[in-house]
Input
Amino acid sequence: MSSRRQAEGSPADGGRAGVELQAVTKRFGEVTAVDGVTLAVPAGELFSLVGPSGCGKTTLLRLVAGLEWASSGRVRIGGRDMTSVPAHRRPVNLVFQHYALFPHLTVAENVAFGLRYREGRRPRHAEAAGRVAAALGLVRLSGLDRRYPHQLSGGQRQRVALARALALEPQVLLLDEPLAALDQELRQAMQLELKRLQRTVGITFLLVTHDQQEALSLSDRVAVMSQGRIEQVGTPLEIFERPETAFVATFTGAANLWDAEVLGAAGEGRLRVRLAAGLELEVPAPLPAAAPGAALLLAVRPERLTLRAGSASPAAGADLDGMAALPVTVEESVYQGARTVWLVRDAAGERRVVHQSSPPGPAHGVPATGLQPGSPALLCWDPRHSVLLRR
Output
């Protein structure tokens, strides 16, 4: 199976796309579930579709699988047009959220089931047994072939479902919320296992999930969807650190948003802006850069913010040790073990959220930071961590 990556190419070597969608639309009556999506997923890539419930991500996966027909547009897999090809003739396999294992069949029989009914030449017994053994080895279930599904853990049952799909050697493996039924600890372990598996077999994985952290931790690239459309496609780093819309910024993690007015250019690749709370600062310019007077949104992740005891006017605190510094009032703190969540309010009356590593344990009930509800503080961050978003 590992040779398939060299045969079909990969993002690094410029291979052809594993999955291509060209202006694909899917309507159910008057409802448009997928709205003109164009997307290219290179062969050998682990690609995730992420978005809230009802955004169209599962419908898009079913369009690739052939379980739904596109109202318009084209679907190509491995360079071939599959728009009108029925599901059983497409070089894909689908792994569902709830395993869909046969309880009366052993692990080996479940994995071999698809080989018995695939179109075309059925493999001989020895060949089928070899494929089953190889697939179970890939998912680290060798030696469990005679067990039944009820004798396995949830994570093991999910790996049997993966092995059954891989035994058919698909060009593309489609995964519809494959880890959603697992508890948090097992889910995190299976995320690592799934990533290792994809690197081993080297085929295209197209994953659907509503879990932002799962998409960011697993994927080579991510597409964020909203209302049937793709808001942004990029690497996990690009999606998280440089969101292009307010929806992407807030969906992929908590984000503080300020109203901001562009004052003018501040050197190559930077703009000077003024926040509604009164602070002026220089931040990276979006592409294309906005003109003076433009009304934008400025986003900063809670993890990039820190709180310092004290107070200052917005102008006086605008360059504190190279950091932007905005006067705020502390409203509340929530201790969460490794981190503390602070809720503060700025001069414009807007509430902001700060995530900081928890300080050493308090002495006599007084927080080590010296910050308490009602006390003044400075909300500080590196201006380079600011992201300007168009409204």
The chain has nine helices and 20 strands. Residues 1-15 have pLDDT under 50 and may be disordered.
